[in-house]
Write a structure and sequence with these properties.
By secondary structure, the protein is α+β, with helices and mostly antiparallel strands. Helix content is about 40%, strand content about 20%. A hairpin with a 7-residue loop joins strand 3 and strand 4.
């Protein structure tokens, strides 16, 4: 099997940081990653049909000299070239990839966000990845947003860091490192970071570069203050860094008369809510103005939530709309596990672990870019359901597999020589391969 030319050109982002022989092995792995039913290295090699020894493909991740961050930044350059934006929206979050084996580098016990509920925490053995992605709007379906991963860091809990003799670094430190790296690479490009409360809490906001606009979520009992008063010349003592205390978001929502909004967020969901808003400063970040939006949902059981943005002149509709753009990264995490099997490679060595999962995340970004900006026609739906109005990642992968199969047929044999009955069997096989995950 060979990759369709329009997609193989996108894989050149890997060629810039790899040697020619390493890149040739990676291209074979990319074929296997798209067509294999299980994404271990051996299964990828079997699916690609390559005759080289499997050790050559293991070396791509374990010992070859190339940088996964450099590849991610090359994907970012591709996004900025095809989808230029005045403000580049970034979404950050962490996800758990379940793994087995006590000798797997970096594996440890982490909270499973899908199985845990409230104070009931379920721990699973695996890898916790902190991921930063770029949010773009689909040119084929306006209003549909995609989160394309570009950078990822493996989080080691304290026991794993001690076991593997690594310096412990929190998830927020890893996220801030990626934001700073992206900021240096992007230059004058305006950046807007969207994150959940883990990565946008007031204590974390104080360490995020001020040139990056931040929209996030905080607790309903967050401590708010007004700006400090101007210092009187000649007055002894240190100048104040905080002004008077302001009502907390909970107290703001207790007011009897509040603005009511009905917004359509997350593609199709409609929310009715009471809204209170104020421009203030957090206690832990006294030098940065934020626009705080406290909402109380009137239906749906979501209760009270508090959002904020460092764009202090933004309206409530803008802040809530910006935060809703963070949701596609959750969809990305589901898709890369369900359709690209990023948690299936059985990597154990440090370099292999740190490269394999991010490679699967970057492959997701390239598949979406190929469908949205390169392929002439949108992918036909493999499955339909109520409310579906755009191609899913499964549809894109199906279209990519069909295009690869069509090019392989045209390259290696002509369908004119195939009997009609055999051709019907081949068409059925093509359909099955397109549906295969």
């Amino acid at each position: 099997m060979e990759l369709v030319t329009s997609f193989s050109r996108l894989l050149q982002v890997f060629a810039y940081s790899m040697r020619q022989r390493t890149f040739a092995a990676w291209q074979s792995l990319a074929v296997g990653w798209l067509f294999a039913s299980r994404r271990t290295v051996l299964d990828m090699v079997r699916s690609s049909g390559c005759q080289r020894h499997h050790a050559a493909f293991h070396r791509v991740f374990t010992t070859a000299r190339w940088s996964i961050d450099r590849v991610g930044l090359a994907v970012l350059d591709l996004i900025l070239r095809w989808a230029p934006q005045e403000t580049l929206f970034l979404a950050g979050d962490d996800t758990l990839l379940a793994r087995r084996g006590p000798k797997v580098f970096g594996a440890g016990m982490h909270r499973d966000p899908l199985l845990s509920r409230g104070s009931h925490t379920i721990l699973r053995w695996g890898h916790c990845w902190v991921v930063l992605g770029v949010v773009i709007e689909s040119p084929r379906t306006p209003g549909r947003f995609w989160a394309l991963p570009i950078l990822a860091r493996l989080y080691l809990n304290k026991s794993s860091a001690t076991l593997w003799r690594r310096t412990y670094r929190s998830k927020t430190e890893l996220m801030i490192e990626m934001l700073e790296q992206l900021q240096r690479h992007a230059g004058q490009q305006k950046l807007h970071f969207l994150g959940d409360s883990t990565f946008t809490a007031p204590a974390v906001l104080a360490r995020i570069p001020r040139s990056i606009t931040v929209t996030g979520r905080v607790r309903t009992d967050a401590r708010l203050h007004s700006p400090p008063p101007a210092r009187v010349p000649g007055k002894p003592g240190r100048p104040r860094i905080r002004g008077a205390s302001l009502p907390s978001p909970d107290e703001m929502l207790d007011a009897p008369r509040l603005q009511r909004l009905t917004l359509k967020l997350y593609h199709q969901s409609t929310y009715r809510m009471r809204v209170a808003e104020v421009t203030a400063r957090f206690f832990r970040t006294p030098d940065r103005d934020v626009r705080v939006i406290a909402v109380e949902h009137q239906c749906g059981g979501r209760g009270r939530e508090v959002f904020y943005s460092t764009a202090s002149d933004a309206s409530a509709e803008q802040v809530l709309g910006w935060f809703a753009r963070r949701w596609p990264i959750e969809v990305t995490f589901h898709d890369v596990k369900q359709h690209l099997g990023v948690d299936q490679p059985q990597s154990r060595k440090p370099k292999a672990v740190e490269r394999t999962a991010p490679t699967g995340l970057l492959l997701h970004s390239l598949v979406v870019l190929w469908h949205e900006f390169v392929r002439e026609q949108p992918a036909p739906p493999l499955r339909s359901w109520t409310g579906k109005r755009a191609a899913s990642l499964a549809d894109m992968l199906g279209a990519l597999r069909q295009d690869c199969l069509e090019q392989t047929k045209q390259t290696h044999f002509s369908t004119r020589r195939i009997p009609h009955d055999v051709q019907k069997i081949l068409e059925s096989l093509e359909r099955l391969l397109a549906l295969a995950a």
